[in-house]
């Protein structure tokens, strides 16, 4: 037993010696690993920059990064972040730009560039970077909300709503109006396709704008979102409402007698009984082209989605067909026309992107004192009653709210039958394409509009259904270097059965306040009209250019126009009313 105990003590000593050597080896290995890791960290600037950034030691990150001659994309990202935290915006912008050039598919760089530009209030540049980031990661919530906020600050509500919708915003708390309109509150509420305690969608915003515009009682309006502390928004409907003959005697007088340069008065009454029932009329006493026109319209069953109308149009006109409105142009024929028409129709605002309308017209025409001359033919003077059906569709083809650009198209058809001996029938088809663009991110300081239209006819067309190109004379196919009247008589503009017309114009705001707006800008019109009758048509392409001043007051507009026919060299100066 004693021997065995000695042997145990010796074994225990050996075991302790082994454990001591193992512990020393373990400590040595750990120390070596730490030293190797520390050396590796000291030799990797990215890791060291990350450690400094984690401690928010931004100046040290900048110093470290600037000590590296060739920075990697990751180091440029850390370098740019540190510079941004130090509010060194130009240097931060360049660092992020360098990183993006090296790694163009990394969405972090355009996001950070947007943040740098946003801090400097360079909103347009920030939006450009964010759109690029969203092309890389379309569902990025931060980028979508950031971009929406920029458009909101710029006043581009449609674009803001488009990107907010991608993240389930904006949430509406209340819907208010300023000032409070007199129009029926229930009907106005139905015009709004959105409601409180809901998400405002882009489609609902467009539909609401179309319905309110169709009511015809607001000379101007817009929607404005107001942010709340709880993250929701109040929607404010800002408006200028037409009521009665006008809100005061001055407005009533100006609106009624605005057509005096054309020997006409325009009695109008809006929002009868606060039901958006409007009456517009015109009486012209010009001895060469007398006219009485009246139209009554209102929402169908107080539903702003559908609007019905009925009207009359009585004319007594002297026509003198000439190839131009100048004194050298000879008369190619003349006559007197009397025409009476009544019509009714309905317009349906299907959504903010498309609408349709349908109408029927019964008319009677009579021609007197006919001098055929070299241009007129007997088949143009079809007498009797006519029934005409009119249908039209308008479609929003393309919208880029970020760039404030819209493209709309339309097509209309008119099919008529005349109870004459023998009976005659005809068809008119017209198409249009309109481009509208505000080049600047905010405001309407500049406005560009381009429109293309074409029309074609089939069958036996009475004279009053022909197309005519030119300015003034109850005509909406504008060739502003041509005047369609001479000595007050219609017939000096190019006439025909088929046409093509393009109108281009750009307007610059020169004055604007709550009452008066004045715009100035150039235009260019190009067109051609064809007809089998040799005395009609333009025979060649027409080119008109010039300048116009648009004045808008009390919700209606007047244009003062100087146009030049580039083919003939003729000058045209006239005043015309603008569509409201």
Which regions contain 5 or more consecutive residues with pLDDT less than 50? 1-13, 28-43
Structural class of the helix and strand makeup?
alpha+beta
DSSP strand content: 35-45%
Intertermini distance: 123 Å
Query: What share of the residues lie within helices?
Result: 25-40%
Dominant shape:
elongated
Sheet with the most strands?
16 strands, antiparallel
Number of strands: 23
**Mean pLDDT score:** 89
The total count of helices amounts to 12
Radius of gyration: 37 Å
List keywords for this structure.
alpha+beta, three-stranded mixed β-sheet, 23 strands, elongated, 580 residues
Question: Would you give an account of this structure?
Answer:
It is a single chain. The protein is 28% helix and 40% strand. The protein is an alpha+beta fold and 580 residues long. The protein starts with a helix and ends with a strand.
Write the layout of secondary structure elements.
Blueprint: H1 2-43, H2 45-54, H3 58-66, H4 73-85, H5 89-102, H6 108-119, H7 123-136, H8 141-154, H9 157-164, E1 172-178, H10 185-191, H11 202-215, E2 218-227, E3 233-241, H12 249-256, E4 264-265, E5 268-272, E6 277-284, E7 289-300, E8 303-321, E9 333-348, E10 354-371, E11 384-400, E12 405-419, E13 424-437, E14 446-459, E15 467-468, E16 485-486, E17 489-490, E18 495-496, E19 498-512, E20 516-530, E21 542-553, E22 556-565, E23 571-578
Parallel strand pairs: 1-3
Antiparallel strand pairs: 2-3, 4-6, 5-6, 6-7, 7-8, 8-9, 9-10, 10-11, 11-12, 12-13, 13-14, 14-19, 15-18, 16-17, 19-20, 20-21, 21-22, 22-23
